[in-house]
Design brief:
By secondary structure, the chain is an alpha+beta fold. Helices cover about 40% and strands about 15% of the residues. It contains six helices and eight strands. The strands form two sheets. Strands 3, 4, 5, 6, 7 and 8 form a six-stranded antiparallel sheet that branches. Strands 1-2 form a two-stranded antiparallel ribbon. A hairpin with a 6-residue loop joins strand 6 and strand 7. It starts with 6 loop residues before the first strand and ends with a helix.
Length: about 290
């Protein structure tokens, strides 16, 4: 069976409906390792190209898609290990730390390393950062050391994945931020539940205390008892609206003002009771004198 070849003129050409989305392990084990050790590849789908000879937007293939290349690393200095990643318009700069790629077979064996680089326009160290990203895959040193005897310096292969990082517009970011804030508030409300405050509880307590005022226990004091039941409500309404006591003095706010208001109301009730009781005694005395004559 002939080996499948999807690279034409250095550009990847897949049939309609096919996509190339390999994992990091597959790129290292199935492609890069086979390339280095001259083993047959699963498919001719990754072209050979020196990515540092061109700017990222000039590389072969569709710039809107991820592009994969086999490339060689060129030493920056004759006796050094640093790679020369300068291009015509800028340079690739490493960011972060290298990520270890571990096999999925459960042995936790490292099969390769991945380095993340960002493209900068201009000359270092004053270049301007762009949205071009490159993932550079290489084998672990233990594997490459075994091949050094048959591998020349120009065949120091790495596998590169290059893509343009897409950023959302400002309006999209604002919408996402507002949506997250709304979800956070909704979740907090769902956990704690709505809180209701009874602003009439204070007034109800005052009314209840006033309704417990002592009344006369005599059998002929029904009129006095009726006044004691209704008088506090009227007096309370007048004081709550004007906030002045019966003597025309301004009532203090807070708990101290409430105590003074209650004392004033009770004093007025007792005064009315005393006057009615005195009137009752006068009527009884007059009735006795008239009956005696």
């Amino acid at each position: 069976m002939d080996k499948l070849n999807f690279v034409k003129n250095g550009v990847l050409r897949l049939p309609p409906g096919f996509r190339f989305h390999p994992t990091d392990e597959e790129l290292v084990v199935q492609y890069l390792r086979r390339k280095i050790f001259a083993c047959p590849l699963p498919a001719s789908i990754i072209p050979d190209f020196d990515v540092c000879k061109s700017d990222p937007w000039d590389l072969p293939g569709d710039s809107d898609q991820e592009r994969y290349f086999f490339s060689t690393r060129e030493a920056k200095y004759p006796n050094g290990n640093r790679s020369n990643r300068a291009t015509g318009s800028g340079y690739w700069k490493a960011t972060g730390i290298d990520k270890q790629i571990v096999t999925s077979r459960g042995t936790n064996q490292a099969v390769g390393m991945k380095k993340t680089l960002v493209f900068y326009r201009g000359k270092p160290p004053h270049g301007s950062r762009t949205d071009w990203i490159m993932h550079e895959y290489r084998l672990v040193s233990t594997e490459t050391d075994t091949k050094n005897s048959t591998q020349s310096s120009g065949e120091n292969w790495v596998l590169c994945r290059i893509f343009l990082k897409k950023r959302g517009t400002k309006n999209e970011e604002e919408v996402m931020t507002k949506s997250k804030n709304c979800n956070t508030r909704f979740n907090a409300l769902g956990k704690t539940g709505p809180v209701f405050y009874d602003f009439m509880a204070k007034e109800k307590k005052i009314r209840a205390d006033l309704n417990l005022a002592p009344a006369l226990s005599s059998s002929g004091s029904s009129g006095v008892t009726e006044i004691s039941c209704h008088e506090p409500d009227d007096l309370e309404d007048s004081t709550s609206c004007s906030r002045f006591d019966f003597g025309g003095n301004k009532i203090k706010e807070g708990h101290e003002g409430e105590r003074e208001r209650r004392k004033e109301v009770l004093h007025r009730i007792l005064t009315i009771k005393d006057s009615l009781l005195k009137r009752k005694l006068e009527l009884e005395a007059g009735f006795a004198l008239g009956f005696g004559t």
